[in-house]
Specification:
heterodimer, A: 558 residues, mainly alpha, 23 helices, 9 strands, B: 422 residues, alpha/beta, Alkaline Phosphatase, subunit A, 2 domains, two-stranded antiparallel ribbon, 32% helix, 14% strand
Chain lengths: 558, 422
């Protein structure tokens, strides 16, 4: 049994390594899609303006690793890498992008990755982890997984999340996973969190500070805040059953008539009152940020305010730009604004024309997220090396400069990406259990890095940020212990037992983790470890694998 | 044999080192540092600071600056203390230590959003798109680390929360976040120390080569720095400072066996070990509703832990060199809202400081009878930070250079609060 397994692994390894292309082949970077050409043109204009020259192109392996990480949330396997590098097609990059986006094989992983990303955006890394929470994390993920597996148009997703009604818990009558986004944001403090989150996430408008006063650095006024807030005043969240032991019954997000505030409320003119800093009371009705007012009636059967808001958002340019900026930032490391979800008039984008252009093209594509993704990842900027040279060293957004994208901005993997990458690299995918079990296992592992700030807004932070707790995990954590384990039949043991020469084994490890072959120096270093262990090659491989996994080159998407 | 950083070592030389390593005995390879007892020498003239961070924004009108008789005043009564200042009846234990502490009642700030307020109170700067400022802990650790070359564990420890980052000072000055139970995750490695040494040497070499051969920016260098610090800490005896279970049951009870109690106890142990900055978090102050029942439960926990901390520091002679800062990101509205809670309020509120030579038993400044205005000279985050730096012997002329080359005065040029030192 074991014999057969490692025999087949040997064949695989040999095939993989012999198929590796040596050196760089010229690739056809001229792409058919006009959007890609336009991105390249506008990015180049800024380089010229600042006298910058682009970095050299990234190697094929680097580009391929990037693409897998950014699209699927994990690094490529050696087999996948080889398939790409050995392809002789002139359009190999476009072919790989299409394969990862549209091939059946990758649907689940694509959906998993974007579900992770959007879960963190919508309910944070901790939402639903607390037993007492109204959020069902599983319900949120179920909705998102379905959304991304079916490649639902972006505007539909936004509409569904903003206007969601139904039960948060999978398996209940009226289950609607989308309800988990707002379920814990509508009841407290006159729905201030719903107001702030919806504005920030879907429109790139930071309104939270203007709840209490006009903000000196923000054009958004207090009046606008409350007009936006008025859209959420029918919304209501309630638990089904009122005891905690009736778990599994979920919570229901719904709408009920809003009678209006004040001494003599009039439901047909359902008004919101707020207080200016000066002490004056003012009134607000639902008015969208562009000035579009809706009917003031507070009765749900007359006017469903969240439904109206969802319509207005999905028709607005704010949504287009916010979506483009978020995706651009995901792939290029920096958005056109910093932070990516602040597109207010006080925060000028680095490439206003490009932001506008991509927003309108996104709309024209009927909000096909995969189209937008393919334009971005096939662009010249996405294919540049992360090596900084004298001709572009001034392009460093970490110094507070606006990004020019003249070299790739290296960044650390997210914790989720590390987790999935290790599963792939150590071929542990076979014995992972059901999808739900896998996600629960991962979620439990992730919790070690997350801590909350102790506010009602549930803001939180992660220690998977390059600091000591992360390094300790990479040195000694269970995940790494398993990956570098020397047990018989394990990943390293299988490699060790193949009849390949030692150098080829080391090469396999480098290809698995770094998408490249080891240098001569690195091979020599590995040889030292072989000598140290008196040719116990599993132990030596364990040392080398540990080193590779702890290197910058592994943990950084570069 | 120094195995810490193979700086400047040639590859061949390094290979020889590694090749020879297997032949060496374990003791020769014991990670290149000496073990020291944390004896009295550490305590000599070494300043530290403990920030008690009250996440969410506690209502200081119900704790430090009560307004009895006004409708904003709420449900609590003031009590007398060992100092010339009254505080809430729910802080009876700490009242006995008020002679060592000062209440600054004239804080007036402008950031009433959690994220912005947290940043501003931690750094002295408002958030900016172009620059990340270093937090209290990073600044003070950076300034005081030179005093203690023997420190093998991070100079900035954050207990039970995550604090604010090091900004342009760099990852090496990040808070080391630990849980208040004293367990540092993933610290135990089940590996022979020789083998670890070999890995260490090889990893540092690989990283250095990657950094030198290819410029991929600061992140790579920082990664290497943090790896180096992690190696140091992994085998350090000083890590026992985190082990609060080494304290007797009686001591632990005195602090309170809860997150904040444990955190304060750990802070004391860390100060004794020579860590210059410790932040201990206590969250849950965002009391938009039912504030009074919540505070009735919460304040005793805080009261117990804080008083045990001050008592221990004083008894050990450490209080004179240790600044204690109590604050949140802002406070809460004097007006009590319709849900019997208080909302965010930054215009007039209190912080508490003490130790490290700061005058005790006093209150600084005054708010109006309804609590809505500071009627004396208002103080800001910058001023408080400048005062703490001054108490710790850090010059207010200290200037940092941001990554883009901009000079930045420590504490954003805040003015020292004179009454704290007069």
């Amino acid at each position: 049994m074991i014999n057969r397994r490692y025999f087949s692994l040997t064949l695989l390894l040999l095939a993989v390594i012999s198929g590796m292309a040596v050196g760089q082949r010229k690739i056809n970077t001229k792409v058919q899609q006009p959007q890609v050409n336009e991105i390249n043109r506008q990015i180049r204009v800024v380089w010229d303006d600042y006298g910058l020259k682009p970095a050299e192109p990234a190697s094929e392996g680097e580009w391929c690793r990037r693409l897998y990480l950014d699209l699927l949330g994990r690094i490529p396997s050696v087999e996948e890498l080889k398939e790409f590098t050995s392809s002789k097609s002139r359009n190999k990059r476009e072919e790989l992008v299409n394969k990862l986006l549209y091939d059946e094989t990758y649907v689940e992983e694509y959906a998993r990755n974007w579900t992770t990303i959007w879960t963190n955006i919508l309910i944070g890394r901790t939402g639903g982890n607390d037993n007492n929470s109204m959020i069902s994390r599983e319900g949120m993920q179920k909705y998102l997984r379905d959304t991304f597996a079916r490649n639902k148009p972006y505007d539909r997703m936004v509409h569904e999340l903003v206007a969601a009604e139904g039960n948060t818990e999978p398996g209940t009558e009226n289950f609607n996973g989308a309800a988990n986004f707002l379920i814990d944001k509508v009841n407290e403090e006159q729905a201030s969190q719903a107001t702030a989150s919806v504005s920030q996430i879907f429109m790139g408008l930071q309104v939270q500070c203007t709840q209490c006063h006009n903000h000196p650095f923000n054009e958004w006024r207090q009046q606008k805040y409350w007009e936006m807030n008025a859209f959420f005043r029918q919304a209501n969240a309630r638990r089904v059953g009122n005891r905690r032991d009736q778990s599994g019954m979920g919570s229901i997000l719904g709408d009920r008539d809003f009678r209006g505030e004040g001494a003599r409320p009039d439901v047909t003119q359902a008004v919101v009152y707020y207080e200016e800093r000066s002490g004056y009371s003012r009134t607000a009705f639902p008015v969208f940020v562009d000035g579009t007012a809706i009917a003031r009636d507070g009765r749900v059967k007359e006017v469903n305010r969240r439904e109206e808001l969802a319509n207005l958002i999905t028709q607005s340019e704010y949504m287009d730009k916010a979506a483009v900026n978020r995706l651009w930032g995901h792939f290029l490391g920096y958005g056109f604004t910093k932070p990516i979800d602040d597109l207010g008039p006080h925060n000028n984008p680095s490439h206003p024309g490009l932001l506008e252009y991509l927003g309108s093209e996104f709309r024209k594509s009927s909000y096909n997220t995969k189209d937008l993704i393919s334009w971005i990842v096939l662009s010249e900027a996405y294919a540049l090396s992360s090596k900084i040279t004298s001709v572009n060293s001034s392009d460093d957004p970490a110094l507070g400069e606006s990004p020019k994208f003249s070299h790739f901005y290296l960044r650390q993997m997210r914790a989720e990406e590390l987790y999935e990458s290790l599963v792939v690299a150590t071929q542990a995918a076979g014995n992972r259990g059901s999808y739900e079990e896998q996600e629960q296992l991962k979620n439990r592992w992730l919790q070690q890095f997350t801590s909350a700030f102790g506010t009602d807004e549930g803001d939180e932070t992660t220690t998977f940020n390059g600091t000591i707790p992360q390094i300790l995990m990479m040195f000694n954590g269970d995940l790494i212990k398993r990956a570098t384990g020397e047990q018989p039949g394990g990943f390293l043991d299988q490699i060790a037992k193949t009849p390949m020469p030692g150098n080829k084994k080391i090469e396999y490890l480098y290809m698995s983790a770094l998408a490249r072959r080891p240098t001569k120096d690195e091979l020599e270093l590995a040889q030292v470890f072989l000598n140290l262990h008196e040719q116990d090659s599993t132990a030596a491989l364990s040392d080398v694998w540990w080193l590779v996994l702890n290197s910058s080159e592994f943990i950084f998407n570069h | 044999m120094n195995l810490s950083t193979p700086n400047g070592m040639s590859r061949r030389h390094f290979m020889r080192h590694l090749a020879g390593a297997s032949a060496l005995s374990g003791s020769a390879l014991a990670m290149g540092h000496t073990l020291r007892s944390n004896a009295a020498e550490l305590a000599q003239n070494r300043k530290s600071a403990i920030l008690l961070w009250m996440g969410g924004g506690p209502s200081t009108m119900d704790i430090w600056d009560l307004k009895t008789g006004h409708r904003n005043g709420g449900e609590f009564r003031p009590i007398s203390t060992s100092g010339d200042v009254q505080i809430s009846e729910h802080m009876p234990k700490f009242a006995r230590h008020m002679d060592k502490m000062a209440v600054v009642r004239s804080m007036s700030t402008r950031e009433a959003d959690h994220g912005r307020g947290r940043y501003y109170m931690h750094t002295g700067y408002v958030p900016s798109q172009n620059i990340e400022h270093p937090s209290y802990g990073s600044v003070i650790a950076h300034e005081l680390s030179e005093q203690r070359p023997e420190l093998e564990i991070p100079p900035f420890v954050s207990v039970g929360g995550d604090s604010v980052g090091p900004g342009f000072l760099g990852m090496a000055w990040s808070p080391f976040s630990v849980s208040s139970n004293g367990q540092v995750r993933n610290l135990n490695l089940n590996m022979d120390v020789n083998r670890l040494s070999a890995r260490r040497l090889a990893l540092m070499q690989l990283e250095k080569k990657y950094m030198d051969d290819q410029n991929r920016g600061l992140a790579v260098k920082e990664h290497m720095d943090v790896i180096d610090k992690t190696f140091k800490l992994m085998t350090s005896q000083q890590m026992s400072a985190f082990k609060i279970d080494q304290e007797s049951e009686a001591v632990r009870e005195r602090y309170g066996q809860n997150g904040f109690g444990n955190g304060c106890l750990m802070a004391r142990r860390l100060v004794e070990t020579g860590v210059p900055f410790i932040e201990v978090s206590l969250g849950g102050w965002d009391n938009h509703q039912n504030i009074f029942p919540t505070l009735r439960d919460k304040l005793p926990v805080m009261d117990q832990a804080m008083s045990a901390l001050v008592e221990d520091l004083e008894q050990r002679g450490l209080l004179q060199d240790t600044a204690i800062i109590w604050m949140g990101e802002f406070s809460r509205t004097p007006n009590i809202n319709g849900n019997a809670g208080r909302d965010h309020w930054a215009r007039s509120w209190s912080t508490v400081v003490g130790g490290a030579g700061i005058n005790g038993g006093i209150s600084v400044g005054e708010t109006s009878p309804d609590g809505t205005q500071v009627i004396t000279e208002p103080y800001t985050s910058e001023d408080l930070m400048a005062s703490v730096c001054h108490a710790l012997g850090i010059s207010l002329e200290t200037t940092f250079t941001s990554r883009s080359g901009r000079p930045m005065k420590i504490a954003n040029s805040g003015r020292m609060i004179k009454e704290l030192f007069a």
